Structure formats: C-alpha cells, structure tokens
Amino acid sequence: MKGTILYPSDAPMQNQGQIALILHAHLPYVRHPHRPNSLEERWFFEAMMETYLPLIDVFRRLEQDNVPFRITMTLSPTLLSMMEDKLMQSRFEEHLKTSIRLARSETKRLRTNNELQNVAALYLERWLKWLHMYRQCGGRVIEWFRHFDQKGWLECITCAATHAFLPLIKHPVMAHAQIEIGAREHERLLGQRPEGIWLPECAYSPELSPLLQASGIRYFMVDHHGLLTAQPQPHRLQYAPAMTEDGVFAFARDPESSHQVWSSYEGYPGDCDYREYYRDIGFDLGWNDEAEWNYIRPYILEDGARLNTGMKYYRITGAGSDKTPYRLDWALHKVREHAKHFLDSRERQLVQAQSWMDRAPLVVCPYDAELFGHWWFEGPLWVEALFREQHARGEQHEQRTKFVAPSDYIAAYPDSEQTDLTFSSWGRGGYADVWLQERNDWIYKHLHHAEDRLLQYAQRLRDSWGFRPVQERIMNMALKEWMLAASSDWAFILDAGTVTEYAAERTRQHLGRCHLLLDMLEQGVYDLIQLEKMEAEYPCFKTADYRLLLPDSSSPRRTDMPFYTVLQPLPPPPSTSPKAKVTLMLAWEFPPLIVGGLSRAVYDLSRHLAEKQCEVHVVTREVPDAPSYELMNGVHVHRVALIHSVTPIDFMDWVFQMNAAMSDGVDALVSRGLTFDFLHAHDWLVYPAAQDIKSTFGCPLIVTIHATEHGRNHGRIQGELPQRIHQMEYQLTEEAEHVIVCSHSMVQEVEQIFSLPRRKITMIPNGVEIGAESAAIQNLSGAAVPASGPPLLFYVGRLVFEKGIHVLIEAMPRILQSVPDAKLIIAGTGPMKQELEGQVQAMSLGEQVHFAGFVQDDTRDALIQSARVCVFPSLYEPFGIVALEAMRFGTPVVVSDTGGLAEIVDHGVDGYKALPGHIESLAWHVTDMLLHPELAAEMAATALYKVRTQYDWNTIAVSTRQVYEGVIAR
Known about the structure:
Elements: E1 17-25, H1 39-64, E2 71-75, H2 77-84, H3 86-109, H4 114-136, H5 142-151, E3 154-159, H6 172-190, E4 196-198, H7 208-214, E5 219-222, H8 224-228, E6 242-243, E7 249-252, H9 255-262, H10 281-284, H11 290-296, H12 328-354, E8 362-368, H13 379-395, E9 401-403, H14 406-412, H15 442-465, H16 469-485, H17 488-496, H18 500-523, H19 528-537, E10 581-586, H20 597-610, E11 614-621, E12 629-632, E13 635-640, H21 651-671, E14 678-682, H22 687-697, E15 701-704, H23 709-712, H24 720-735, E16 738-741, H25 744-753, E17 761-763, H26 772-775, E18 792-796, H27 805-818, E19 823-827, H28 833-842, E20 849-853, H29 857-866, E21 869-872, H30 881-888, E22 893-896, H31 899-904, E23 912-914, H32 919-931, H33 933-950, H34 953-969
Parallel strand pairs: 1-2, 1-8, 1-9, 2-3, 3-4, 4-5, 5-7, 10-11, 10-14, 11-13, 14-15, 15-16, 16-17, 18-19, 18-21, 19-20, 21-22, 22-23
Antiparallel strand pairs: 6-7, 12-13
Helix pairs in contact: 1-3, 1-13, 3-4, 6-7, 12-13, 15-16, 15-18, 16-18, 16-19, 17-18, 20-34, 21-22, 27-32
C-alpha cells in the first residue's frame, strides 16, 4: 500500500486549489554494447547526472526534513530498461568517474582564477556525491523511485513502451501492445500497475480511449487545446479533468503555468543569474592552443567530435556572448524567489477559478523532466524550494493550495464531464506536424508494413504452427524490433535536423531486423545464433508478448474501429457455369489503393462485368489493412504480397518484383484449379506478368492503355526511364490480341506511336456511377446554383505537370479581378505539391488558394457539389474521368481543349473548353461561368443528361464483353 501524505493544517480538498506537478522522464533506447563512449549513450549518462540523480537527492532531502511533497512522474519503459541494464549501469559509473577526474583536473587548472575554480569545485562535490549515492543503491536507481512511490511522495506513471506516436500507428491492436507492454514493464520494475499514462508527445486520438481502458489506465494528459476542441467543450475548462466515453480521465495542461517554467526567454530558466547551458569547456577549449586540445581530448568522443562535458562556468548574464562567472548563491536566491512567484501565481489563478467552479479547481503543470537539471541547472533546486515554501506557508496557516496527483483528484471527484476529445498533441502546431512531414514521412509506410506482417505471422503462429518456444522467441523479438523502430524520437530528430543519420539508421535497422525475424518464420529456418545476438543486444521489455496481437487477447474490439486483417486462405475455385466467361485482370492499383484514375476504372469495369455473366478475378498488389483475398461486389480480388526492402529500391526493380509476385499468384490460382478465358492487363506496369502468364497458359491478352509515356512527356521521350517505359508499352500492345483505349484521341495516339493496325484498337470510354445524387439534381435551374458564400472553384487530381494546375494558379489573379472573393481548393497529392505551394506563396495567393491534400470519395463529392465551377486545366489528358464526376453532380465545368477532355465537353453547350496552357483563356472562361450562373446552370443540366446517356458503366461493360467475344471469335 502507498503511504499517506500528511499536510500540516490539512484543510478539506473542497476548500483548496489543487496543483498537479507532472514530470515526464523519457529517453529513447540508446544502448550500444559494441560502441562504447557513443554520443547517444552520453544522452543517458547526462540525464542521469544532471536530472535523475539530482531529483532523487532533492526527494531524499525533503523526506529527511519531513517536508511533504507530491509529484507525478513518468518513467518511460525505455528509460527504465536502461536504468535496469547492468551494462548501462557499469558504463554510467565509468562516465561518472571520468567526469570526477575532469573536475579534479579543472580545480588544479583554474587555481589562479578563484571564481571559476569555485564553480569547478562545485561540480566535483556534486559528482562525488552522485557516485556515493549510485554505489549506495548498487546502481539500481529504480529502487529509489519505487521507494518514493510506495511512500506516496511520488505517483509514478507509465508511457507507451517505446514512446511511439500512437495516433500514427496503423492498427489499434499494435497501439494497444505499446500501451499494455508499457504498463507491464512498469508493474515489473516498480511493483504495481500504473494508474496513469503519459501519452507520447501528449498525442491523443479517440481510438486510444478503449485501449487505455482495456489496460486499466485511469487517466492521461492532453495539451490545452485538446479540451478547447472537444465536443462538447467542458464547462470547467482545464481546471478539472474531462472523461472519455470509456471512462478514462483527461487532464489538460495549463498554459499559464507552463509558460512560466518552459520559456527560456520569459520563464524562470532564462534568468540572468542561472547557469548558461551553452558554454561548456568541451567546446570552449583547444581551438587555437594545442596544449588545451591535448588536455580536453580524452573527455570528448574518440573521433574528436566535441560535446558537452558538464563543466559550464558561466551564468546566463545577458543576451550577448560576454558571460560572467556563475554564482551558486545568486542562483539559489533566484530559485527561492521563483518558487514563491510560482505559488503566488497559482494561488491567484486558483482563487479566481474557485469563484465560478463547483469544485476545487486544479492546475495541471506537466514538464519534460530533463528541463530540471539538464537544461535548467537549478530546476531540481526549484522543485525543492517549491515544496519547502509550500510547507512553510502551511505551518503559518497561509496555505491556499495543495499539491496532488491526478489520481488524488479523481478519488475526490469521481464524476467528470464526458466529452469527445479530438486528435491533439503538445507538439508544434498542436497536432502531428513534427512527427509527420516531408523529412520523416517515409518512416510510416515501412512501419505500417511491418505491422501488417507481425499481425499476419502472430495469427499464423497460433493457427498453423502452434506455440513453440523458438518461434515464440522470434515473434517476441520481432515485436520488440518494431516497437523500437516506432519510437517517436526518431521522427522528432529527423524534424529537428540533428543527428538525422542516426535516427534514420535506427529506424532502418530495427525494421530490417523485424523483417529478418519474420522471414525466419516464413522459411522455417531458425537462425538461433542471430536470434540470440539480437536478444543480447537489446535485452529490453521482458514482458513483451506477441499474444497481445491476437484477436482473442486482452485488446478490445469495437465494431466501429478497423483492427487488422489476418492472412486468409484462398477460397476454393468457384464453380463456373457453362455460359460464364472467366476474366483474369492484372492491375497495379485497385481499391482501397487509389493512386490515380486507373484504380476506380478497373474496379467499376470489373464489378459491372461480373453482372454480365463474367466471372472476374483481379490480381493486384497487397494493400495495408486489406485482405489477401476478398469477394468485392462480385469480383474475386487477389492481393499478392511483395518482397519488401527497408531501404528504397529502384523504381523499375520494384515494378519487376511486383510482376514476379503477380505471376506467382496466378500460378497458385491455376494450381488450385482456376482456368480463365481472357487475360486483361491494365497499362504497362503489369507487362512482365502479362507476358509471362500469356506464354505459360496460352490465353488471349486484351490490354487497356489508360495513358502513354509519349503523351505524358508531350512527345519527348528523353532519359533512360521514359525510354524503358515507352518500350514496355510498345511490347505490351504488340503482344496483345486487342487494345482498348478510352478516347478517340487515344486511338490516334496508340495507332501512331505503337504502329498498331486500326482494327486492333477499340475505343470504350470510362464511366461514372449514376446514383441517387444525380436523380435529385437532374432538373437543375439557375435558381438551384448556390449564390451565397464565396464563389468556390475546385480542382481534384494528381499534382503533376501534365494536369496544368500551375496554369490555373497563374490565372487566379485575373479571375480575382472580376470576382474578388473567389476561392480555389486544390485536392490531391503528387510530386509538384511543394512547387505549387511555393507558386501560391510567391504570388501572395495564400488566402485565396487552399491545398486540401488527398481527399476521400465522400469529401471529394461534397466539394464538387459545393463548388460553383470545377476546373480541369490539363495539358495532357487521355480521358478525364474527373470532369465526368463533376458533371454527374450538376456542377459546371471548365476544361482544357485537349485529349479526352475535349471529347467529353461540347464547348458552350455542356461546359467550356479553354486553350491548353493559355492563362487568359482559362481565366476568361472560369470568370464567365462565375458571372453568369444561369448560363452555367443550363450547361450543367445538359452535361448531366450526357453523362446519364453516354457514360453509364453498364453500357461500357457490355462493350468490353463484346471485345472479349470478338477476340475469341477470331
């Protein structure tokens, strides 16, 4: 049982304001057994010397003097693992002894400078004390934290196992594993299950609530804006916790108290009398003096790289580079002043809050623990002064506040307002900007793929292999490797731009080892030497258990949350009726993977063919979160797994790997009894597989060319890659019995560039799904066109040069001259995104142009319906499905007079066609649509009729089936 905190003149909680001081102690797992004296291990050593041992010393003094204190403290599982590790304990003691030698040497070197020598003596005295404390507990500093936790002075809480940014984990069951293993490690090392958790980076999303509840977590911390965006917004704001629908309490950071301590400019740490962090002899000595260099050389890295030694002699002094020597007595005076100021500020704040609160108000003050001691040298002394001042006020009956842990507050007030908290973090921007942006976004596709494989092999291990000790060890180690790769620290470092190679290498290393272990399971060859080496190198998380990944584990399942898809066996080949024709389609993208228009076109065609007595099997590449086989609207979808590499591979190598997997997948289907009448390949990316399957099984090949490299490059095939693609397109059409294209312009294009006979080509347009939405607007009139609100222009598609978005942006100033309040939304992603954003900023159009990024279909449809005009200014467009999507909703369109777009739109009848690449032409036609809504509505109604009568997928499926029959007849 925890001890009871006894405060002098302990008034009832209801009459006192409450303060929760929360310190988040965390470091990434930086154990490197084969690299002694590494920079990264120094992070741990410095934190021990400057933060954790000084805080323990403060706690010991307060306890010895009977000064009550109550602090909540996270001890992250990675930090606990290093504190527990015998190798790290030994290395830290050696580092401490080396620092003591340096301090002794400094007291001699500075014997003629009394001010600096006094500072050196201060360090020598401190570090000798830390060495004595460390040896006193046998290196097991965890025992000190456990002691204060059991006494009730501390409330120790946990964190996700490797401090992963939980909302960016793909599968909730994997996030639950991070949470549950963190809780288990906490219980193993500190003796009891944690009541609270510090969500890494304070990052919360609603999917986490049931996961926390399932692990017995009662509370967590969120940033202040996390409550401001909650629905409904709690009436008590940040002065009391809110509660999720699963009964977990959310405590919000108080911005005022945070600023007072966090800010190095306006907050306490920036005071002129405190020690200057950025002046260390590791950087100051030996630049122009060889003797000084030889002196400092043994105390920096072996390769000569400079680093902090801990010997810092100056106070902050002022903003300039001139610094005066540090005075501990001056700093201690400021510590006491700032402790009083903090308490006075909280009392004023809490008294004000009490005037309208229905319960004792609470101020939550969470900080990174390393602020105290490492960055702010006097931080631990400030913590001590805080509680001594609080104790003195209590003895004088002037105490108006009380320090509590979150669990204390929950015990006093078990009922809280329930609200739906939205996604938030305490990072830059308040969301995920730090951990998901262009410098680190590459991490997540690899992490997510590893998640998929871990879940698949956990299921296989249970269902197929049973529970065997070696296989379980492999799975548990693979899980650890994924967890270590998922640490938010690596993405943070990549964002900050410091030691980025190390962060990237750690991510790649752990993911590579994870896949290596899973490959052992797949191949049935268990390299025990390699396994033991990995286990010895990273001996962390003894409670990690892959069974947490199984669906019948303690992780919760909710019907509204997608968990994961396990490997499913291929179904037996369906019986085929004599009249049915079996079509095997090859497509490199297929829903839910949507890169461009090809995915939707293949999906719509295949499902409508399935309604026309065609049995359709689509072979495509694997998609995270999608099953390896499923029957989707009558279409048999087979997703083949690719061989994945942690390091990026050449694009063409990836293409050939995908095709090899497709060929193997078809071989497996045929071996299980499937036969097919036609092979239908979509675009050049599946050419190698199509050629292999045709030659192996002798089936007729039909090819749909959705676009050409010749067209994308405006006839200029330059460079090795475009030439290879062009050659593969040529070979694909040559191998085909028949070629389908989607527009008359494409007929001419493939006929000319591939030297195809006209009889070998059929034009079948793509279509759109006509549903209830178009029936509701088929009788459009001018009155139906929205006239209120700013006129909205909308573009959706890939952000590539041939789509002409840059032309539309260039046209915006001319449009704004006539329609000043017009706004443009650009939806989609692609390689030109940064360039286009830069163009918008350079033209000062940031207020008028918004980049929406990738949008789901329902969002796309809503934006189309909200738009006054949809604009598609392509320079090259084989078909132009997006124009049809706009037309089916009755939204007026302006397109470029090129390719398939030119064939879809009749100029001035059902839309406008602007000259391709012509800024003035595009601006005039868009402006005319905006200024004449009645005319625009008439064109939109005509366009809707055209879509319903000419671009229906049922008609298109029949035409495609006729091509199949014609090939058979020939």
